[in-house]
Amino acid sequence: MRSIKFILSLATTIGLVWALQTQLSVKDKALPPLGPFFNPFTGFWRNAEPSKGFTPQDLNLPGLSGKVQVVYDDLLVPHIFADNNEDAARVQGYVTASQRLWQMDITTRKASGRLSEVLGDRTLGIDRLTRRRGMVYAAENDLKGWQTSPETVRLLDAYTAGVNAYVDQLTPADYPIEFKLLNYTPEPWTSLKTALVVESMAENLASYGDDLPATNALQLFGRDTFAMLYPEWNPKQRPIIPDTGQWKGIVPNLPARKTGAILTGMQLPEHPAMPALADPDPYLKGSNNWAVNGTRTQSKNAILANDPHLNLTLPSIWYQVQIHTPQQNCYGVSLPGLPGVVIGFNDDIAWGMTNVSHDVSDWYKLQWTDATHTAYQYDGQPRKADLRIEEIKIKNKPTLLDTVRYTVWGPVVFDYDPASELRECALRWITHDIPEHNELSLFLSLNGGKNYADYKIAMSGFDCPAQNFVFATRSGDIAIQVQGRYPVRTPEQGRFIQDGSHSENAWHGFIPQDQVPSMKNPGRGFVFSANQHSTPPSYPYYYLGDFEDYRGRHLYDRLDALHDATIDSIKTMQLDNFSLRAAEALPLMLRLLDRSKLDADGRQIADNLAAWNYRYDAGQTTPPYYEVWYDSCYQHTWDEMFTIQKTRPVLFPESWRFIELLEKDTNNIFFDDKRTPQRETARDIVQASFQGMQHYFTANPQQRVAWGPYRGFALRHLALIDGFSRLDLSSIVGGQKSTLNAISRTNGPSWRMIVELGDKIHALGVYPGGQSGNPGSPYYDNMVNTWAKGEYYELLLLSKPDEAPARTLAQQTFNPGK
Amino acid sequence: MKNTLYPTLFVLIVGALGYFGLPWWWLVAVAAVAGLLFPISAGKGFAVGTAMGTLLWYSMAMLLNMANGGALAGKVSQIFLGYPPLVITSLLGGLLGGFGMLTGCLARELFKK
Fold first, then answer.
1. Alpha-carbon torsion A249, A253, A259, A260, what sign?
2. Which helix (H) or strand (E) holds B45?
3. What is the distance between the alpha carbons of residues A813 and A72, in angstroms, rounded to a whole number?
């Protein structure tokens, strides 16, 4: 009896321990093993940081050449004071890891197709595609390029060692909470991971390409209709760099076309079951930057502003830091995983970035020599594909070995998917190239830059992802450069899938650095960019891309009208919720609307729309009506595309072109609904869409709310954990894709910075997040409300550690030694 | 009462000390050893183990939670269907301590003539 009791009790105890040690899953959600997670001595409770104060320990950091002092200000921004850049990089690595280690881990895991290793086979599809797109291959090539600069290698190694000094001293109790939740352990940092951080930005910003949808559209509609639907140049566009005669005499060196070479419009096999690849409403990627010189400011100092719009997450993509060494004194935002400051300012200069949005990724159709797909035709000869084996480890499952074929163009991404229309195509993507330059050196030289000459030298070292670098100095210079590495193309080359069996279809070299569009101190007193066209069509090189058509124009108008600017007037521009797109489309729509056919409710809505000031403020009640009406007009007009889209990706006309047709071509054939016998015009579309909109709001009265709650806004945790996200901001966050304050449901200004370059630098900044990546820290989301309300913080560019005692939270000393 | 004092102190003190470095199931081991060492009935052992396991895990969690202002607990509770992490933690501590000590007591009784 006793032994039975004992055995029962022992079995229960062992069973309990086993159950609490096991990773559970409830529905689709994986839960951590409960025992280790709730154990208050090492589990998640240890991530509950004190809500007041911050007490970092002084410590020894092997490899330092001297003492490094870190001052944390009241926003937990580290101000690093070191004797040289290498020591600063080492401490930057340590400090960044101590706040953002899990973010660094998950970002590089995603960029290298290693999510399944810790998350299991539910992320296998993502990993496989990442690998097949050549992301790791690209990062390896980055490293090869960076190796040519000994200074870069030293800084990179110091940064890596700093991160690893932090990782090495961790005990399981100290692991960031996400490691405990997802049940895996931190691993050492490497230079390759730094390259992966750069590649993940390239993937975000420079992977645009409509080759397949455009090819399909050309095939379906024919040349003339294609040209009518998809013009490349918007005549209302305000390019970043105007033509001032600077391109006279430049003639691209293009080879004569050989006969028989197919350069556009490959016929592709049709696949009715093809799932649509392209998203008709791709999420917003856009940014603003500008600089005005003393002729436009009250203080006669130059002012620079930048707000890069990215996917907004918690932790934030950015981490603020100041780096003070004898060579530089620089403040700004860094990317966790990258040494130095990416966007910021120092005692003499300031700079900011927006995405260039050129298409630098093309698809080439291959002709395999036989069914084994080991060789393809290239200039009449069979050429063997190189094989790269991708080893994808999967938690609790056998490793997947995936063979990717590499051609002269690049990887054959989709040949594992028989339904893909791109399955016989190779990807030529600029980010795969071994960089001729060194993206890291750009930031490092800008960080210590003093004047325009330094800026120009820094610029020459940056390939990808191409950025519009705006620049201003304390001495009053302003400049902008559309910096990147761009292929030289024949007209329309890269717009469609090309024939990959001819070498002459390759890019014809790259645009020389001195012919990359740029501008210094224009007479108008300002430079600006908002992801619009880089240049007018008179620029001698053909390029294509995904360009913004409204923010840039509105920004130009505001800058053109700007006099006696102050930091406060610049703020109103960053926070501007006025939509030029709505201002151009709505009057046309109202003009085409026959109000006599509306009921009383409809006339009221039309009156409200007519009285709208085109502002997407969170509290405005009119924007939802306009949004639904406009979207409905767009969908009714392009119903052909929406039907095709169900089976094949197809190109959609740009908004500006649609609005232009509403203005100038109301009888366009696309306004006709083919299902009806009569011939519809834009009037019919606008009228029917209005009634559709009215029905929608009658059927969904709960949608009759202000713009903020209607649109919805979420600041999501990187692992989409609701408890670690901020989902309470919808009612105060306004803005829209086409406004300068460009905010969509999950994207928007990831960093708002304004710098006035006077005798003493005066800088403001804010991002929607906090310096700490730990949801258990008071600094996890402490800047979110400030950002949402459109407020800013004064940024502290300290000249010595004890300069701002009132805003100093803590100090930490790093000593050389073991 | 007196014969429960020693195992009570043992679980609390040795338990707390061991957690500076030992894994989460340490509490089971400590409670089992207490049950083996101290002459206490299985029923009382289970009660003492449960109470002390709860107390040990609860008080450590509570200390951290108070300093944190309850912020992280609120976030984590959303992952666990709204159940307060303090309650889950105390419950788990109690289970581990209780069954650990019960097993220890029953093992000791095996050798008793």
1. negative
2. helix B42-67
3. 11
Dist. CA A379–CA A302, nearest whole Å = 55
Side chain identity, residue A303: I
Contact B29, B53 (CB under 8 A): no
pLDDT at A695 over 90: yes
Q: What is the model's pLDDT at position A456?
A: 92
Residue from A41, A721, A726, A782 to probe the interface with B (highest B Cβ count within 10 Å): A41
A112: left (phi over 0), alpha (psi -120 to 50) or beta: alpha
CA B6, B8, B9: angle at the middle one, nearest 5?
70
For residue B3, the distance in angstroms to the closest alpha carbon of chain A comes to 21
What are the φ and ψ backbone dihedral angles of B108, each rounded to 5 degrees?
A: -65, -40
For the cut 90, the answer to whether the pLDDT of residue A282 exceeds it is no
* Nearest CB neighbour to B89, from listed A10, A38, A50: A38
This prediction's pTM: 0.94
Q: pLDDT digits over A632-678, tens only?
A: 999 999 998 898 888 888 999 999 999 999 999 999 999 998 888 88
> Residue A617: is its pLDDT beyond 60?
yes
The per-residue pLDDT for A12 is: 92
Output the CA angle A486-A310-A328, nearest 5 degrees: 75
| Interface test mutation site (partner A, options B14, B25, B59, max chain A beta carbons within 10 A) | B25
**How many Å apart are CA A692 and CA A701, to the nearest integer?**
14
Whether the CB-CB separation of A234 and A387 falls below 8 Å is answered with: no
Nearest-Å Rg of the Cα atoms of chain A is 28
Q: Which residue of A has its CA nearest to B17?
A: A41
Average pLDDT over residues A214-226: 92
- CA torsion sign, B42 to B48 to B50 to B56? negative
- To probe the interface with B, which of A38, A728, A784 has the most B CB atoms within 10 Å? A38
- CA terminus-to-terminus distance, chain A: 60
Mean pLDDT of A191-207: 89
Residue A439's SS3 state is helix
Tell me if A320 sits within 8 A of A796, measured CB to CB. no
Tens of pLDDT, residue by residue over A552-582, are: 999 999 999 999 999 999 999 999 999 999 9
Chain B hits for A726, Cβ within 8 Å: none
Long-range contacts, A113-120 (Cβ 8 Å, 24+): A113/A390, A113/A392, A114/A392, A114/A393, A116/A392, A116/A393, A116/A394, A116/A395, A117/A392, A117/A393, A117/A394, A117/A395, A118/A182, A118/A183, A118/A184, A118/A395, A119/A30, A119/A182, A119/A395, A120/A30, A120/A394, A120/A395, A120/A396, A120/A397
Question: What is the crossing angle of helices B71-79 and B85-111, to 10°?
Answer: 80
Give residue-wise pLDDT tens across range A43-100. 999 999 999 889 999 999 999 999 999 999 999 999 999 999 999 999 999 999 999 9
Contact between residue B101 and residue B7 where contact means Cβ atoms under 8 Å apart:
yes
Task: Give how far Cα A398 sits from Cα of A117, A121, A277, Å.
Answer: 10, 10, 29
Summarised one tens digit per residue, pLDDT across range B22-52 is: 889 999 999 999 999 888 898 999 999 999 9
Q: What is the ipTM of this complex?
A: 0.96
Taking an 8 Å Cβ-Cβ cutoff, which residues of chain B contact chain A? 19-20, 23-25, 28, 32, 42, 57, 60-61, 64-65, 67-69, 71-80, 85, 88-89, 92-93, 95-96, 99-100, 102-103, 106-107, 109-110
Distance (Å, whole) CA A370 – CA A367: 9
Q: Judge whether residue A266 has pLDDT over 70.
A: no
CB within 8 Å: B99 and A13: yes
- The DSSP result for A737-764, as a single string, is TTBSS---SSEEES-EEEEEESSSEEEE
What whole-number distance in Å separates Cα of residue A328 and Cα of residue A348?
10
Are the C-beta atoms of A401 and A251 separated by less than 8 Å? no
